[in-house]
Amino acid sequence: MAKPIMAKATAVWLVDNTTLSFVQIAAFCGLHELEVQGIADGDVAAGVKGFDPIANNQLTQAEITKAENDPMSRLALKFNPAATGEEKRRGPRYTPLSKRQDRPNSILWLVKFHPELADAQITKLVGTTKPTIQAIRERTHWNINNMQPIDPVALGLCKQSELDAAVQKAAAKRAAEGNAMSDDERRKLLSTEQSLEMDAEPRIPTAISGLEAFTLGENTEEEKDEPLPDADSFFNLPDSDDKD
Q1: Does residue 213 lie in a domain region?
Q2: Which domain holds residue 23?
Q3: What is the pLDDT of residue 224?
Q4: Position 234 in a domain
Q5: pLDDT digit string (tens) for 175-193?
């Protein structure tokens, strides 16, 4: 059911100017009955100026009068031809001005760590355009050398649940197409809670990186039985056999 614009302000006006029940006002404005009661008691929407739905072409006086005379009746929003199709209008997610400079960094993060995501999914997550995504994928973006991959969730550009849902959807599509996923890609499909509960993988110190298979050889049995030379033997010179 369509709801009026400025629903809470409309509810304030209806409470102050009509004898409609709380249930009728709540149903029309999309509010809870107790919230409407709080408006009537002055505990909710204090200081909110009422919004006249009749003057703003959302209700007719005849509709209000009918509902006042019949407690079971429900108010119907006045049909506005100009609003037809407004709910179907879709577009990229709005990004606040303060965060728009970080948006390319978030795109770089998504392209790097979730290459399975389609351009349309990235557009929906962070509110960008496909040419921008393509330029970052191909590393032809004008500022690519100064960009750093940053998680869009950490930047507040999208929610973790939205990112998880997009990744799961991309994974399901890939599975349907018969493309196998690597272990690293499967780990990316874990939720945040699951990944935090996993044990950390053992890592080799960077100082000995590349020496994983190197082991010190043990002494053989013969080398163990052989006595160590006496230190004095290194300084005892053999007797001279020369005769004068």
Answers
A1: no
A2: 7-83
A3: 52
A4: no
A5: 887 665 555 555 555 555 5
